[in-house]
Amino acid sequence: MTTRAGFVALIGEPNAGKSTLTNRMVGAKVSIVTHKVQTTRARIRGVALEGDAQIVFVDTPGLFEPKRRLDRAMVAAAWGGAADADITVLLVEAQRGITPGVETILEGLAEIGKGRTIALAINKIDRVKSEALLSLTEALNERFDFAQTFMISAEKGHGVQALREWLAGQLPEGPWLYPEDQIADLPLRMIAAEMTREKLTLRLHQELPYQLTVETESWEERKDGSARVDQIIYVMRDGHKGIVLGNKGSTIKAISQASREELSEFLGRKVHLFLQVKVRENWLNEAERYSEMGLDFRDGKA
User: Fold this and answer.
1) 160 and 211 co-located in one domain
2) Taking every annotated instance into account, which residue ranges of this chain make up the domain Era-type G (predicted)?
3) One domain, residues 35 and 126
4) Radius of gyration of the CA atoms of the chain, in A
5) Is 126 annotated as a binding residue?
6) Helical ranges in the chain per DSSP H
7) Residue 21: alpha-carbon gap to chain centroid
8) How does pLDDT run across 134-147, given as a tens digit for each residue?
């Protein structure tokens, strides 16, 4: 039996559906999905099996115009993921079409795309008419010589299997990179932190989600098979701490419960989750915080 294995990078603008597609391909939730943009910070790898092929998805942060150090590190991680992958898939939202952001990404692909396999996936096709889809497909393929174009709905699953089968056939021959039962190469501590950060992002509004981070401080396996997980939510100001805690601790309690339930379901066992909120005004400029997120602090320099 000839096996295949390799890395597939998903790139695109924030909110193009990269995390949703990763989770759909893998069949489990390995990347946080919210209605807010720029939520994926680390290059999360989800592992999917298709026939004799093992597809390792690199779910990169959305490509956007960086303003802060964290933004620059995220964009560098996205392009780094594309440059390191065997195949790159550009996701474009059908209803948004060729935005200035997509134009910038196409320019970037022109630089790194030579000799590489790059496919196009037009996502959220259920939201536009077929004539608009056809003209968008033509326009994008005129801008770049894509190896293949797919029409998909990552949320509903339309067209995803065809993309998955094509990717499997394009990967280089070789042994699998991960054990058969492994779905992600992120440490459990980071997956747990991402789950809590998703709940914070969904619960809180405006800018605050981008000015906080979550770290799993300790993970203790207990004799009864359960796990005790202690996490710290770092915020930048005292006022932010009050927002995260909520009236009489109601917000942090709801976030803790939602995160605990999801983590318990993900692990298939009981989890005791304890959250603390701490103010660290400068966390955006601390190398240690970037390492915890799987980013390179040096990539954030202006």
Assistant:
1) no
2) 4-173
3) yes
4) 20
5) yes
6) 18-26, 69-84, 100-112, 130-143, 160-170, 188-203, 238-245, 250-267, 287-292
7) 9
8) 999 999 999 999 99
For residue 233, tell me if it sits in a domain: yes
Tell me which of 126 and 82 has the higher pLDDT.
Answer: 126
- 162 and 200 inside one domain: no
Residues 6+ apart with CB under 8 A from 254: 203, 246
In whole angstroms, what is the distance from residue 174 CA to residue 217 CA?
Answer: 37
pLDDT at 204 over 90: no
For the segment 65-84, the average pLDDT, to the nearest whole number, is: 66
Residue 143 sits in a domain whose CATH number is 3.40.50.300
| 285 is annotated as contributing to ligand binding | no
Burial (CB count within 10 angstroms: exposed 0-12, middle 13-18, buried 19+), residue 220: exposed
Q: What is the residue range of 88's domain?
A: 4-170
DSSP state letter for 97? -
Residue 147 marked in a binding site: no
pLDDT score of 101: 87
Mean pLDDT value across residues 188-196: 85
19 appears as a binding residue in the annotation: yes
13 assigned ligand-binding residue: yes
- Examine residue 9 and state whether it is found in any structural domain, yes or no: yes
Domain of residue 209, CATH code: 3.30.300.20
125 annotated ligand-binding residue: yes
Is 161 in the same domain as 192?
Answer: no
In one-letter notation, the amino acid at residue 264 is S
Question: How many folded domains does the chain comprise?
Answer: 2
> Has 59 been labeled as part of a binding site?
yes
Q: What pLDDT is recorded for position 15?
A: 83
In a shared domain, residues 52 and 20: yes
pTM over 0.90? The answer is no
